[in-house]
Write a structure and sequence with these properties.
Nuclear Transport Factor 2, Chain: A; 93 residues; 5 strands; flat; alpha+beta
Length: 93
Amino acid sequence: MKTEVQTSSANRPVKSYRCGNFSGAIWANEKQMPEGMVSFLTASLRRSWKDKSGSWRDETVNLRKNDIAKAVLLLNKLQEEMFFSDKEGDENE
């Protein structure tokens, strides 16, 4: 059985934030379940950059509520490893 998830009307986020070349948004969604329509929130994290030819590029990761804590924990661990490693060459020190 295929289920369809719909985002809120006008496909606009409930809330959005920006920090440098990163942006995040919270989306209201609805999903038809056997017991009726269910509403839930998801988040998206987007990174934008210009490639070598000067064209804007971006990539987006969509997260469910329970995914966010896992992503934060993983990012903190990666940051810790990078800060405490002996390797040089951080492009944005």
